[in-house]
Amino acid sequence: MEELIRKANTLVEALPYIRAFFDRIVVIKYGGAAMENDALKASFAKDVTLLRFIGLRPVIVHGGGPQIGQLLARLGKQSEFVDGVRITDEETMDVVEMVLGGQINAEIVALVGDAGGQAIGLTGKDAGGFLRVRRLLGPGGRDLGRVGTPERVDVSLIRTLTKEGFIPVVAPVGVDADGHTYNVNADTAAGAIAEALAAEKLILLTDVEGVLGDDKRLIQQMSAGDVRRAITDGTVKGGMIPKLECAVQALERGVTAAHVIDGRVPHALLLEIFTDGGVGTKLVRSKG
Asked: What value does the mean pLDDT take over residues 98-124?
């Protein structure tokens, strides 16, 4: 009986959040360990399907860097990175499209279907190239090949799909004005899509607990100003910097809140959205 009461209390705690976020769009960047562990993959699909059934409108934007690297290695092609960005020549771009737009995207759609949801796979090439990009240059103007950064996002198709009850699953492959395809960082693509949708939330799944302070303890909430100070003073380092910069830009361009959460924790998505304390770091424009 006590266990049943605890479950009931959990549902009651979630009620105000379910009401507040009903019919709101939530963009989820899906990547890291959550994409590589079978149990976590199934758990994520169930969580996203639950979001849909209780009235939220989730949009998934997925990565796939490790899987791309594995296939390139099997083909005898070594990956080269500049500041964490994979140099993408023509041959590599073919592999990127195969892995992101084919293998991974189809797997996520199937997992959501197994969980009882209705997902539709997309790439930025669809609907006349809804993810329009320009070539991204590396440090000192270095040519990175087919690497793009979002320039314009037409989210009309995504809006229509979410209104009809579907869960869009977007592979971060963009297209330029001449129709050439580009590899786009999944965090950056998720942020741009969230901005264009004026999403309620942008949620970034990572392989760490969230944003950690100097004492290595989780920071539960940060403002955009806090983030800038943490980057400047070195509290935040390495791969977390571009994630937070992407989140802050999304906040400044209309997204209500951003979250950095640990995708290795089962049901982290639900715990962050529907509990008072959350499990990761919540980012807001300003504290108030």
From this structure: 96
pLDDT for res 288: 61
Domain count, the chain: 1
Residue that is written with structure tokens 């050439």 in the block: 180
228-253 pLDDT per residue, tens: 999 999 888 888 888 999 999 999 99
| Average pLDDT estimate for 253-275 | 95
Which single residue is written with the structure tokens 């009309």?
A: 156
pLDDT in tens, 161-171: 999 999 999 99
Kindly calculate the radius of gyration of the chain based on its CA atoms and give it in whole angstroms. Answer: 19
Strand partners of residue 86: 81
Q: Residues near 178 by Cβ (< 8 Å), separated by ≥ 6?
A: none
The domain containing residue 195 runs over which residues? 2-284
Task: Report the pLDDT value the prediction gives residue 214, as an integer from 0 to 100.
Answer: 85
Residue 96 one-letter amino acid: V
**Predicted local distance difference test score (pLDDT) of residue 30:** 97
Looking at residue 116, which CATH number applies to its domain?
3.40.1160.10
- Overall pTM > 0.90: yes
Cα angle 120, 126, 130; round to 5: 110
Strand partners, 222: 283
In a 10 Å sphere around its CB, with 0-12 CB exposed, 13-18 middle and 19+ buried, how is residue 14 labelled?
Answer: middle
